[in-house]
Design a protein that fits this description.
heterodimer, A: 275 residues, mainly alpha, 12 helices, globular, B: 282 residues, 2 strands
């Protein structure tokens, strides 16, 4: 279809404020992290200021502030992702390759778990972890996160396994390989990009999760999103520190989503939409 | 090969559910006792309605999920149609649009708490400058605007999700069908309603379902923006449960509420599944 100059102009004119609306709050918060504290709440808002890295220095260079939470976030998110992989890879492979009577039921059960309110599971876990004395451990968070990472990864991974042609595996079976060898030598390497994409999504979902650490962590094991909260809970809200912590929290998921490129549609829809 | 995942998930689900079911019949406040105190039958279920704003929370939750999904879908659809113009710079536009979706909901809460700040917040200031009346106690402090403000933050984060997925859907609409319709003299509007929308319906139904449930479970934004306030003006079901269970430590009552929510959610999910996965190839 030929578009006239006026039509093109109209599209850009409509899109510009929209994009401004979506990027604005992020840039405004970045500005908050960089501005001198006394300019944070002026009326009218101050758009010009001398940037300073003091908030980042305070939160991430000084020991005992947020550096540890960054480490905790890495431990909990990688732990939750790695722990889910053996369970989800084997289940996704089976659901993709074999005609099972329970297939439909299982797939729907997994997706229902993804739709369930996390808070519902949380209170019983809290009471039990408290009794076991596990509250404040990384393990407690990693275990409870499996309610999200396993079902999500199964759905997404199945869509990747579905794309590896059955024939390749059958050819290997004809050549005398057994099912396990065929899986390990043929299907798994071909599905590897899918497994990596799935892990990256599982990592981001775990990274951004706040509900579980909010209840299951303590001061020593708090994750980075909770770091923002710590400045909020204390008296005298220190918004520059909140902003600095928040900006650092945002960076890993942003980088990962930029890397994921064309897989984003698929990941965000649990593999239900190929994109 | 399925057994490990089923066993792990089953134990992770069945345990809390069973725990909640048993304790929903007991009086048990964790502040006063480390274990259930007394069997009280169905009293907890009664008290959910009597002493917690359960109905108000349910109403807020429904307003938020229905309104939020509706606005995000159509706003996202509009953006997807703009992106579909295939002009230069749409890759950059898409990249910018992905940004909000990557931000942790709790951080989105802080972004908007700052934007909504009384007087000096960028959003409040813009509204005032444009001549709109901003409530004296701020957008988050007024019961008229608190819930809507939470919705605005969620719309900011998740409209791009609809835009990106629907744009992918639009790209997969076959060129020939659109051309044929044009030859037959269909207008742009007709083409959208009669051809494009039916073709992307399966995608649309699935993402509407995902988003509706995420909104229905809304917790993080409420926690940072309003804590359900002022009063109970913006309290959602999830926040109400959190408040009873992990602020008041009223475990028995929270357990009863858990089951009421599970029943509601199960009904909604099943209705959706019937619609969304009707013609699904397993």
């Amino acid at each position: 279809m030929r578009t006239s100059i006026q039509q093109k102009l109209l599209v850009y004119l409509a899109l510009l404020p929209v994009l401004l609306f979506f990027i604005g709050p992020i840039l405004w918060f970045l500005a908050l992290a960089l501005r001198p504290p006394e300019t944070a709440f002026t009326v009218p808002p101050q758009f010009i200021f001398t940037p300073t890295l003091k908030a980042f220095e305070y939160t991430f260079l000084e020991p005992g502030n947020n550096r540890n939470q960054l480490l905790n976030s890495v431990i909990v998110s990688s732990g939750a992702t790695l722990l889910s992989l053996p369970f989800s890879v084997s289940a996704a492979y089976a659901l993709s390759r074999f005609q099972l009577r329970a297939k439909r039921f299982l797939m729907l059960w997994y997706i229902s778990l993804l739709m369930a309110p996390p808070i519902v599971f949380l209170i019983p876990y809290f009471v039990v972890m408290a009794r076991l004395g596990w509250v404040g451990t990384h393990a407690s968070m990693i275990i409870v996160l499996q309610t999200i990472t396993i079902p999500f990864s199964i759905w997404l991974l199945k869509s990747f396994f579905d794309e590896v042609p059955d024939e390749l595996e059958e050819a290997a079976l004809v050549d005398g390989a057994n099912r396990l060898q065929a899986l390990l030598r043929i299907t798994l390497p071909l599905a590897l990009p899918g497994i990596i994409v799935t892990s990256m999504f599982a990592f981001v979902f775990s990274w951004n999760n706040t509900v579980f650490p909010l209840v299951l962590s303590n001061q020593r094991t708090a994750t980075l999103p909770l770091g923002t909260l710590s400045y909020f809970a204390t008296t005298g809200v220190t918004w520059n520190y909140i902003a600095a912590t928040a900006i650092v929290t945002m960076i890993p998921p942003m980088i990962i989503f930029l890397l994921l490129g064309r897989y984003i549609v698929r990941g965000l829809t649990f593999g239900a939409v190929k994109g | 090969m399925l057994a490990p995942s089923v066993i792990v998930l089953f134990s992770l689900i069945i345990y809390p559910m069973g725990f909640a079911l048993v304790n929903s019949f007991y009086f048990w406040n964790l502040q006063t006792s480390p274990s259930p105190v007394q069997f009280i039958g169905l009293s907890n279920y009664q008290m959910v309605f009597q002493i917690t704003p359960f109905i108000d929370s349910l109403r807020n939750t429904l307003i938020l999920s229905i309104g939020g999904t509706f606005i995000e879908f159509w706003f996202g659809m509009g953006i997807a149609l703009l992106l579909n113009s295939q002009l230069r710079g749409m890759t950059i536009a898409r990249t910018i649009l992905i940004m909000p979706t990557t931000v942790a909901p709790i951080v989105v809460g802080f972004l908007f708490r700052y934007m909504f700040y009384e007087g000096s917040g960028l959003f409040s200031w813009l509204l005032t400058s444009l001549g709109f009346a901003v409530p004296e106690r701020g957008l988050l402090g007024s019961s008229q605007t608190a819930l809507a403000s939470i919705a605005v933050a969620d719309i900011w984060e998740w409209t791009p999700f609809f835009a990106i997925v629907l744009y992918a859907g639009l790209l997969s609409v076959p060129e020939e069908i659109v051309d044929a319709a044009r030859v037959d003299g269909a207008s742009r509007v007709q083409m959208f309603w009669r051809i494009i929308l039916p073709l992307i319906k399966p995608t649309a139904v699935i993402i509407i379902m995902i988003r509706f449930m995420q909104l229905f479970n809304m917790f993080d934004l409420v926690f940072v923006l309003t804590r359900g306030g002022p009063g109970t003006a913006s309290r959602t079901l999830s926040y109400n449960l959190y408040y009873e269970g992990l602020v008041n430590y009223n475990i028995g009552l929270a357990a009863a509420m858990t089951w009421l929510i599970v029943v509601i959610v199960t009904i909604i999910i099943n209705v959706y599944i019937l619609i969304a996965f009707k013609d699904w190839e397993w």
